[in-house]
Amino acid sequence: MDINEILGGVKCQACGRDHACDIESVFVESGAIAHLSALCEKYGKILVVADENTFGVAGKQTMDALAGKETEAVIFDGKSVLIPDERAIERIRAHMDGVTLIVGIGSGVIQDLCKYVSFYAHLPYMIVATAPSMDGYASTAAAMILGGMKETITAHLPRAIVADVDVLKNAPMEMIRSGYGDIIGKWSALNDWRIATLLNGEYFCQYIYDTTYEMIEKTLAVAEGLKNRDKDSLRVLTEALIVVGILMSFAGSSRPASGSAHHLSH
Fold it and tell me: Which residues of 225-254 are buried (b: 16+ CB within 10 A; e: fewer)?
């Protein structure tokens, strides 16, 4: 599937709605980080956010792509678990003077922090993916720890998602397995959506349902390749994770991707 084709929107024959997504560009390929140069051309000062681990695997490529731009970087400690809480938020905000764009390098937590801070600062952000670990790259939801409690904040979508398979293939295997499990878990989410439609009359779209199911089938087919860190298999998994996020935007809810299994996991 060419992800960029559906970014422009879909006039859905199945449910009658016009589906839309605010993401402008998605690149999942070898050398994808090089696209940042053109993607960031129109912006002024750029704030790069990462931790020591994610900067170690994609920082040089990112900074090379941003050569010639005014940049500042916030690099969190990579030895301890990064918590997306008030302390992390304030550390980023302390470097926001004159910033026109935030570029995150990472996966879940870095993504959520960039999403949250940029949303409340009314700034765009982009994400350089470092692991195919979850479906949040194309989601408006930011999973934060605020006041010591986990909260899901509705924020906004990135302007661009850049996923370099040369980086993704070196992600920790538990993160690759996590992404695989995330997609396989859509089976139960789709069933929950069907049940909610039958019992409660919730909105349902066969196009979104079928496309999500297609992503499950494609991911199942590359299981062996993922174990061997095959780059094409990792591309398929990453595209599935991004497409499912886009489909949540199309649905206006997390129904295609999240149901009872998601609640139980938390």
Answer: bbeeeeeebbbbbbbbbbbbbbbbbbbeeb
